[in-house]
Amino acid sequence: MLEKLPDVIGHALHGVRAGLDAIVFNTLGLREGMSTIALTSLAFADHAPLPARYTADAPEGEGLSPPLQWTGVPAGAACTVLLVEDADSPTPQPLVHAIVVGLPAGDGALAEAALPSADHPGTGLHVGRNSYLQAAWLPPDPPPGHGVHRYAFQLYALAALPEFSETPGRDELIDALRAHAIASGLLIGTCERPDGSIRIGQDAPAGPAIAG
Length: 212
Description:
By secondary structure, the protein is mainly beta. The protein has three helices and ten strands, in the order ααβββββββββαβ. It has a single domain (2-191), classed as PEBP-like (Phosphatidylethanolamine-binding Protein), CATH 3.90.280.
């Protein structure tokens, strides 16, 4: 995992970030005239650190998806969808950590570990592709020394239930949002891996990987 990357790589990429303005919530103009969904978590407050159990930060990190709950979904909604992006990934677009489509309309919740991840099967949701092309929760895994990463948990209410593919990706989801979104909500969780994360005796990988 990326905790083994040398600190120098994180420092070199420190100013390279997709940016919060690049997440879907801020790029599609969906909020103007739309209802607001209150998206929260029992595990962390807005703009507060994610507990280690929901990250890839060994040894505490279990890679679980965190619990979420939401209220304020408008009566005209046919379904809701979840998108989680890393606004601070050093990539042209935010790194996608999770997509879930076809969630029930109305106020709802996702339990801890509801999304599949390594060693956790999930609860049978319709999960799309993350940026590693896996239909799973991609645990936060920022490189050491890169600074704070902001993980944008976004919930959208749709006025129609699109016929999503088996594992929809970011582009497919954006098309559906442009056509059908009627409400949105945003919750930010943070994660940072400071310098010195490489333990004595660990070998760094031969080259850098995509940070997230």
